[in-house]
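Extended Data, record Citrate synthase
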Amino acid sequence: LGLMSYDPGYMNTAVCTSRITFIDGEKGILRYRGYPIEQLASKSSFMETAFLLLYGELPSEAQLKHFCARVYHHQTALHADIVALLQTIRHDAHCMTSVISALAAMSALHPEANPALEGQGVYSSRKTRESQMFTLLGAFPTLAAHVLLRRSGSSVPCLPAPSLATLLDPARPRAYVEHFLVLLGLGKARPGEEGPDPRVVRALDAILLAHADHELNCSTAAVRHLTSSGVDVYTAVAGATGALYGPLHGGATEAVLRMLQQIGTEERIPAFLEAVKAKEAKLMGFGHRVYKNYDPRAVLVREVAYEVFQVYGADPLIHVATALETAARSDDYFVSRKLYPNIDFYSGLVYKAIGFPLDFFPVLFTMGRMAGWLAHWEELLMGPEEEKKIVRPRQIYLGPAERAFLPIEARG
Ligand code: CMC
């Protein structure tokens, strides 16, 4: 092996320093820029927390207003080329495939982010970097809404575009989420009501906040990995979205719901857990590379689920989920492996109650995580030179030693 260390899955390899997110997996602690996630979830908003992640400090009132204005500017419309692109994708395609394609295509619309210019220092301009961040944060919910409407069979959707003044109304601290729900006509407590219920807006906002960053998870590592090659930020986040799509990462939100539906009733839990222990199935929404204790985000999301159930009534699957958690947490297989519910265990029940289809769940995860990806992108670009090396792990070759080529007629 020489001086190389063999570390599949990077279980023990630190590839950067970071000042964004702190996790103590043994104690179940998560902090963004030093602030406990519980305090942010109860006192902050997704937009304010996005500012915190991107700039390192909580904003003043004026700073937050300026930030929101720049982000919301991109939320009011989606570029016609992206709308047209989405129409070319099968309407029954998984929502994440459309999102990945649209994010990659946004690269073509932003020549200022072109990697060919990177060598000339385009990203050394704070203005250019901020412009990419505002564009991606602002355009994403509108892009996601178009994807969902397309998924629901709508042709070119005609979406309402509120004025910036409406979005910046101080009475709407969570306009980012509120506008997204308005676009989709979701979040109303009862049909016929004018807009989304504030409890639903708060719930979805808190979930986005809880998803916003989680240090070097698979997709954030992908952003840093891709950025290390000098590629533009749109391509980097498209790649990260691909990583997030997988069922072991953000796709778990959807997989948990499918699992709960498949189990169906509490009586079937013991048989399902036996299949998990026999390694015939996985208990989706359980386990984590870093947490060897309860994921603090799962606590938050479970509370949010009960708040949303106050609006829509409890989903019967919540009883399956809580009984499954109780059974697993008293079973030695899960206890000895320190497997606890993670953020994805309860989030799908919230999304389902609001009315999102299952294959849209990972898109909602992506919406929150975009803030963290951009914070890591910025941190890498502005970080120490020695951390800007192209990511290029080594391998241990186990294939054949040198051998002579055999012409096809000589092969047996
Ligand atoms: N169900 C059953 N067994 C599990 C599970 C699970 N969900 N998770 C881990 N294990 C077992 C695993 O089989 C192994 O057992 P053994 O020692 O007998 O081989 C042991 O626990 C250690 O697991 P591991 O796979 O080595 O752990 P990891 O750190 O490589 O994987 C994980 C972490 C999240 C991929 C894994 O726990 C998992 O697949 N969980 C289910 C998918 C999921 O919920 N993903 C969302 C993660 S949190 C949000 C996010 O980041 O997206």
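Summary. Strands lie at 21-24, 29-32, 35-36.
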